[in-house]
Amino acid sequence: MTLSINQPTTTADDVEQDLLRFLKQHTKKSWEPDVDLFASGAVSSLFAMQLVMFLEKNFDIAIGGDNLTLANFRTVNAMTALVRRLSDE
Amino acid sequence: MSDDLTAAALVTELVGDRADGWDREGRIPTEVIRELGAKGLLCAEVPARLGGLGLTSLQNGEFTAHVGSLCSSLRSLLTSQGMAAWAIQRFGSKEQQVHYLSRLTSGEVVGIAFSEPGAGSDLFAMSTEIRVEGDSVVLEGTKVWVTGAAYADLLVVIGRFGDGAAAAIVPADAPGVTVERVSNPMGCRAAGHAGVHLAAVRLPVDALLRGAGQPLSMLVTSALTYGRVSVAWGCAGILRACLTAAARHAKSRRQFGKPLAEHQLIGRHLAELLVAEQVTTRVCEHASRCWDSGSPEMITAAVVAKHVSAGHAARSASTAVQVLASAGASDGHVVARAYRDAKLMEIIEGSSEICQLMLAEHALAVAS
């Protein structure tokens, strides 16, 4: 897996692309950024936690406390926004 | 790392030959638990910046296996203290992390409460309620089989919180808290399992961990992932104790004019015990390396490790009793303890069947 990680210049577009690649790698299909991943049934409870881990590791953020809501992980768009927000903190 | 060796030697000395007696009495002397706790060894992965020893998962795993090879009851306390500490680190605010983790690394004992009378494998049936009233947090409900609760100063209680879930830190002596020891647990008999009743327990609101309101599945999966890795390492310890006991006995005990080990059917048992210990150690190492590198795979690797390790421990403990036969067939003997303790490992932190269901769901999501 080749990812551009931990670069201060990471843009929302990079985050989105990295996330889509990770999802494709693990679910074996392509996703649109606004699709509800949980409603689709493609995301197991274990994979939901893997997504949390992926975001933390690849974007060097800590997702704790009140950011661990399902709403923040429901779509690629939501996760991208979360990463941007936490990267700015 | 020399700290690990020192820690292992300390536990070897503290436990000595007393694990059998602790098992029969159903109690570990409080001073043993306090001494380990005060040295930070009950939750050795707490980072140094928060007062802990900062061991890696791999280092703490080997330490956990060592404790598990001596006494699964004591190892259970490491698992629950470590899991509670991880939940606080994961879901607490910075102030809560500093406040509580310094206490957990200086001698205080903590239990973490998930299961309820109507919510075992089906944790979504959990009914314990946590709510905020003004500047208080109020807890109401009943928890069962809380490891270490009989020794605990603090309890991390998981409950419903609005549409989601939350965890609150409850002093075991707070008004409204009743702790009732499980009278005759089949295994890990000295681990202080207890039921905890919470009758409108009212605490200052800062007892509520900041990550309140998140989905129950996320809260539980995150906390249990630590517990699964820890239980898996504990099973590696059970396997090492069984392998050692069986090999020593097979070498010294003579029947039909030769050592048991020279009877091929016994030799096969020894080989399978060795394989089980090796396989278990490898899956544990993998899960810990995933944890230490922050790999997303750690969530699944923890379930795989727990499932594989518990199964091997249960089957191998049975094998070890078979090899020792009457020599190991009294309560308190290391293989008799292993036999009872290992069976519980197939039940806690997600039963074998729940692990299989999670892995099946995962297989369908990622491999179909």
Cα gyration radius of chain B (Å):
20 Å
- What is the assigned CATH homologous superfamily of chain A? ACP-like
**What's the overall average pLDDT of chain B, rounded?**
95
CATH topology of chain A: Non-ribosomal Peptide Synthetase Peptidyl Carrier Protein, Chain A
Number of strands of chain B: 9
Overall spatial form of chain A: globular
As for the number of domains of chain B, it is 3
Into which percentage range does the β-strand content of chain B fall? 15-25%
Query: Roughly what percent helix of chain A?
Result: 40-55%
In CATH, the architecture of chain A is Orthogonal Bundle
Name the strands of the widest sheet of chain B in spatial order.
Answer: 2-3-7-6
> Per CATH, what is the topology of the largest domain in chain B?
Butyryl-CoA Dehydrogenase, subunit A, domain 3
Q: State mean pLDDT of chain A (0 to 100 scale).
A: 81
Helix content of chain B: 40-55%
Q: What gross morphology of chain B would you assign? A: globular
**Beta-strand residue percentage of chain A:** under 5%
The class by helix and strand makeup of chain A works out as mainly alpha
Q: Could you describe the 3D structure shown?
A:
- The complex is a heterodimer of chains A (89) and B (368).
- With 89 residues, chain A is mainly α.
- Chain A has one domain (12-88): Non-ribosomal Peptide Synthetase Peptidyl Carrier Protein, Chain A (Orthogonal Bundle), CATH 1.10.1200.
- Chain A has three helices and no strands.
- In chain A, helix 1 packs across helix 3.
- Chain A is globular, with a radius of gyration of 12 Å.
- Chain B has 368 residues and is of the alpha+beta class.
- Chain B has three domains: 2-109, Acyl-CoA dehydrogenase/oxidase, N-terminal domain (Butyryl-Coa Dehydrogenase, subunit A, domain 1), CATH 1.10.540.10; 111-207, Butyryl-CoA Dehydrogenase, subunit A, domain 2 (Beta Barrel), CATH 2.40.110; 216-367, Butyryl-CoA Dehydrogenase, subunit A, domain 3.
- Helices cover 54% and strands 15% of the residues of chain B.
- Chain B is built from eleven helices and nine strands.
- Chain B has helices spanning 2-15, 19-25, 30-38, 57-70, 72-91, 94-104, 216-252, 264-293, 298-324, 334-345, 352-367, and strands spanning 110-113, 129-133, 136-146, 154-161, 164-171, 177-181, 194-204, 254-255, 258-259.
- In chain B, the strands form three sheets. Chain B has a four-stranded antiparallel β-sheet with strand order 2-3-7-6, with no helix packed on it. In chain B, strands 1-4-5 form a three-stranded mixed β-sheet, covered by helices on one side. Chain B has a two-stranded antiparallel sheet with strand order 8-9.
- In chain B, helix 1 (2-15) runs parallel beside helix 4 (57-70), helix 4 (57-70) packs across helix 7 and helix 7 runs antiparallel to helix 10.
- The longest helix of chain B has 37 residues, at 216-252.
- Chain B is globular, with a radius of gyration of 20 Å.
- The model of chain B has no long low-confidence stretch (mean pLDDT 95).
- The interface between A and B is medium-sized, with 26 and 36 residues.
